[in-house]
Amino acid sequence: MSQASAFPAPAFPNPVVLWSHEEEERAGKPLLVLLHGYGSNEQDLFSLAGLLPQEFVVASLRAPIATGPGFTWFPLTASIDYSLDAVKAAAEYVFSWLDSCKSNHSSVTLLGFSMGMAMATSLLRQRPADFAAVVGLSGFAVDAEGDPSFRDAELDGSVPLFWGRDQQDPVITPDKIEYTMEWARRHTDVTKVLYTGMWHGINQQEIGHVGEFLEHKVLTSV
Fold first, then answer.
1. What is the three-class DSSP state of 219?
2. pTM surpassing 0.85?
3. CA–CA separation, 132 vs 184, rounded Å?
């Protein structure tokens, strides 16, 4: 894991969010928060809103740090490493926004792609009681062993986690996959599905599985 001093503390902008419903239509509905990958933006995953259970209000949040033509949740080094302090700063950015709206909803579920999965699992680990479920697509969980703000000991294996990936994914490195698998098995109710020919992406079959997961693990328990 990289050193915390590798990156300076960022100054974050006001959140940019795409919503599937107008404000007056959101109250009391379960919230599904979409967290995009590195170098992308809030538009990237928003098309999924129409493919997932319509009971959810979907909010797609833009990451706070501009990088190239898009945005990132936290900086990466050339070797695809990261600062844990930067991950925690990004989590605080998300919590600040989420705390302003979550009371309007019956539950909160997180869906993250690639680095967005690192964010989704980090949010769960810092507030284990706050989320109904987590969906991680072609991503990983950060190695936060020994950091007291990651409250893994409070995760008793009851929170549902969907983790979909392709074994031929060329982006997520084997060490990150190994750590994520060990963490998920120890701390979540993990549903792990492997796909072929998807590489570092999302396919129609996976979205179908995600929809079923959300129906069974979130909507039937609300």
1. helix
2. yes
3. 16
